[in-house]
Design a protein that fits this description.
This protein is mostly helical and 40 residues long. 80% of the residues lie in helices and 0% in strands. The protein contains 2 helices and no strands. The longest helix is centred in the C-terminal third of the chain and has 19 residues. The radius of gyration is 11 Å and the shape is flat. This is Mercuric reductase. It comes from Burkholderia territorii.
């Protein structure tokens, strides 16, 4: 289930997105996303 979420997230990140939205997402998700990648 976690792998599917990461795949969907990568697909979403590849889509065209407004820079402001990306910056906002990164600021909110940089810590949980980074810690989630550590075990992999």
């Amino acid at each position: 289930m976690q792998e599917t979420t990461q795949i969907e997230l990568l697909d979403w990140m590849q889509e065209d997105t407004h820079p402001e939205a990306v910056d906002m997402m990164v600021e909110d998700a940089v810590v949980p996303f980074g810690t989630a990648l550590w075990p992999v």
